[in-house]
Amino acid sequence: MPATPTQGHVVVAPDKFKGTLEGAEVAARIAAGIRRGAPGTEVRELPVADGGEGTLAAALAAGFNRIPAKVAGPTGLPVDAALAVRGDTAVVELAQSSGLARLPGGRTAPLAAGSYGVGQLIGRAVSLGAKRIVLGLGGSACTDGGAGMVQALGVGLLDADGTELAPGGAALRKLDRIDLGPLRDPLTGIEVVVACDVDNPLLGPRGATAVYGPQKGADGEDLVILEEGLTRFADVVGEAVGRDFRNAPGAGAAGGVGFAALALLGATMRPGIELMLDLLGFDEAVRGARLVVTGEGCLDAQTLHGKAPAGVAAAATRAGVRVAAVAGRLELSEREWRAAGFAGAYALTDLAEQPGDSMTRAAELAEVAGERLAAAFLAG
Questions:
Q1: Does 312 lie in the same domain as 261?
Q2: Which of 137, 144, 185, 362 is most exposed, with minimal Cβ within 10 Å?
Q3: Count of domains observed in the chain
């Protein structure tokens, strides 16, 4: 007897499982398990991201067009990057050009790494006619306050002799003045929206250097040098634009790239997952759904503070649709994940037969999790 289709479709909207599977593959594997466990079920795959690494991939999976671009990496060496474009909207992911993964040989360069490639990607989006640029921040290798980004867009950062500053946060200590002239025309009429999930200021104990500098290889005297550079940058930019953005929430994001976006690109900031769900058409996808499935590599306390699965759960709940999670590891208690809006939560570590299987057999186990979900939520 043929299977009877279940009423209402299922939306599978996970983030990447960092180090094992990209979001699109997670979605495909969970969807395959659901189809096997509940034949006849319509499953729609909509991988998501929160503005960090994986943002470009999520946009491409949602139908944006991939535009390749060779740009400067964090140390100035060329890298093959890309942006995503649909209509007059472009998605630029910082990690594509200036991320830790782009460091040659994985060797950090805390004082010299810069964000020039991000500006090149923005410039490419402008040349393609973009009127709205979504800038995803996350995974940055630099602590240059976004200086490189705006230099790539024509801003002059000059020392006392009128010489353009070298790349990197350390060079900012020599900043004497800023020439904004070339920046104004290219960005006229263009909306820049930053997808960001941190509220750190640029400077101080919660700032870009203190909190994120060590992740980029800075310690000891490096941290002092970088803080001095960002302070000088904030002073000069504040004088030039007539407003001080150093304490704006999110100014410290991505080594201070958030600061330059706010102060010099006129950007606005939105929570990353909220912005991405709008961009990916989540509300339309979930309309009439029976179940939403989301997830990420580790469901933990950080998940509850603006990460992708929590945002998906909140949006699904607002739509009146149950939501379940699949994760590589589950570090929340049942009380915690239920309080966050999840009707079920599955960990690959619980499905693994041997230690390490959740990493080496992640794709296979994600399908098993999909079958378990089908049995629990879609049977009958």
A1: no
A2: 185
A3: 2
Same-domain status, 257 and 342: no
Rounded-to-5 percentages of helix, strand, coil across the chain: 45, 20, 40
Sheet holding 43-45, edge to edge: 43-45, 10-12, 291-299, 322-330, 344-347
Q: Is 38 in the same domain as 68?
A: no
Burial 320-341 (b: 16+ CB within 10 A, else e): ebbbbbbbbbbebeeebbeebb
By C-alpha distance, which of 305, 306, 355, 308 is closest to 327? 308
Shared domain check, 370 and 312 = yes
Given pLDDT bands bounded at 50, 70 and 90, which one contains residue 186?
low
| pLDDT band with cut points at 50, 70 and 90 for residue 41 | very high
Under DSSP, is residue 163 helix (H, G, I), strand (E, B) or coil? coil
For residue 94, tell me if it sits in a domain: yes
In terms of residue numbers, what domain contains 21? 10-46+288-378
* Cα distance between residue 369 and residue 371, in whole Å: 5
Which residue is listed with tokens 């009146």? Answer: 320
Per residue in 42-72, pLDDT (tens digit) is: 999 999 998 888 999 999 999 999 999 999 9
Task: Render pLDDT for 274-306 as a digit per residue (tens, 0 to 9).
Answer: 999 999 999 999 999 999 999 999 999 989 888
Exposure letters 186-218 (e unless 16+ CB within 10 A, then b):
ebeebbbbbbbbbbbbbbbeebbbbebbeebbb
CA dihedral sign of residues 308, 148, 71, 190: positive
Q: Is residue 279 part of a domain?
A: no
Q: Is the dihedral of CA 18, 23, 24, 25 positive or negative?
A: positive
